[in-house]
Specification:
By secondary structure, this protein is mainly α. It has one domain (16-296, 304-309): ABC transporter involved in vitamin B12 uptake, BtuC, CATH 1.10.3470. 72% of the residues lie in helices and 2% in strands. The protein has 16 helices and four strands. The chain has helices spanning 2-12, 15-33, 40-45, 51-65, 73-89, 95-120, 124-142, 159-166, 175-192, 195-205, 207-212, 217-243, 255-264, 276-295, 304-322, 324-334; strands at residues 154-155, 168-169, 173-174, 245-246. The strands form two sheets. It has a two-stranded antiparallel ribbon. A two-stranded antiparallel ribbon has the order 2-3. Strand 2 and strand 3 (173-174) form a beta hairpin. The longest helix is centred in the last third of the chain and has 27 residues, at 217-243. The two termini are 28 Å apart. Residues 4-13 and 333-339 have low confidence and may be disordered.
């Protein structure tokens, strides 16, 4: 009986449960502020506005679990968008072939950064910051091959390409929500139910120990950046289809929300712990917060303020949980001295 009670407490007190409570509170509060927020078509359709954050954060989770960080994903989103636009519009290439090449481009960008991080020992923050500037610059360079001015973007994509992403099941459930759920399942199985996933966690806990166990830790670390690059490219393709326009700056504002979603979801910024489900929930929490605030007539330029606050709080809670002095202080209340 005692073991069952302990197991129940662990399930109830999981961080994911706390995120679900936050999500419920958001829906309740924003519903009171603006009743239109609770309309099924409006509420479910809101995910289209932050799908890029949701997708990219799933794959960046792999990177942070290894102890790294990826702040170049937003630039890869924009680079992929303009890349497929130029290939289709100016080179006359089949659009779906261009999308496939866009995914390969994202994989290459991730592999390039991952190689320097894993095999040269340069800090991931430095490499991905450089990658962010590099890929943004390459995106602008690609526009030189287009007959359309860069600030206008490339539009006029086929309807079958845009309508699928904009479509809804039963005229209510967005197709992008279904795509997100499928990606959650795929990344969950890959991270939590495969040997590869266990190797990712072990590299984050102790890379030297992973090497002693026969794991090629450098290749594993590099592979997480490849996955992140592919995820960013996929997000870029979907965002391009949803907006109907290919532009270089589509992902320029997602870096802070993505990192916040991963850390808020329970992934340690020091590596070794984390999970896909927590990241997915946190990404939705952040997206609903931004959407709800915009429906409450909050100026869009202020929407990053609560996201920044969430990031600081999440990191502070993580630090508090690993600090011996703080843990000892709270243990006094959990286990008071018997008199």
């Amino acid at each position: 009986m005692k073991n069952n009670t302990t197991l129940l407490k662990k399930k109830v007190m999981r961080w994911e449960s706390f995120l679900v409570l936050i999500l419920i509170a958001e829906v309740f509060i924003f519903g009171l502020i603006n009743p239109k927020f609770l309309l099924p078509r409006v509420f479910l359709g809101s995910i289209n506005n932050f799908m890029t954050i949701c997708i990219v954060s799933l794959f960046v989770t792999f990177v942070l679990i290894t102890g790294g960080i990826d702040i170049q994903a937003g630039s890869i989103v924009g680079l992929t968008s303009i890349f497929i636009g130029v290939l289709w519009n100016d080179a006359g290439m089949n659009l779906y072939v261009a999308c496939f090449l866009g995914l390969l481009l994202g994989a290459f960008c991730g592999a390039l950064s991952g190689f320097f991080i894993a095999f040269t020992g340069v800090q991931s923050m430095v490499v991905t910051l450089g990658g962010s500037f590099l890929y943004s610059g390459l995106a602008l360079m690609v526009t030189n091959f287009s007959s359309t001015e860069s600030y206008k973007g490339i539009s006029g994509f086929p309807k079958e390409f845009t309508h699928f992403v904009k479509g809804r099941i039963f005229n209510i459930i967005p197709n992008q929500l279904v795509i997100f759920l499928v990606l959650i399942l795929i990344t969950y199985l890959l991270l939590h139910r495969t040997t590869y996933g266990r190797k990712v966690f072990l590299c984050g806990v102790n890379q030297n120990a992973a090497e002693y166990c026969g794991i090629k830790s450098k290749l594993i670390i590099m592979s997480t950046y490849i996955l992140s690059g592919v995820g960013a490219s996929l997000a870029g393709i979907l965002l391009t289809a949803y907006l109907g326009t290919a532009k270089t700056d589509l992902g320029k504002e997602i870096t802070l929300p993505v990192i916040t979603a991963v850390v808020l979801g329970g992934t340690s910024n020091l590596g070794g712990t984390g999970g896909v489900i927590g990241t997915a929930l946190a990404a939705v929490v952040i997206g609903i917060m931004r959407f709800g605030l915009s429906m409450a007539d909050v100026n869009t330029q202020y929407l990053d303020i609560p996201v920044g606050i969430l990031l600081i709080i999440a990191v502070a809670i993580r630090f508090a949980g690993t600090n011996p002095a703080i843990s000892k202080f709270f243990n006094k209340f959990k286990h008071p001295l018997k008199r």
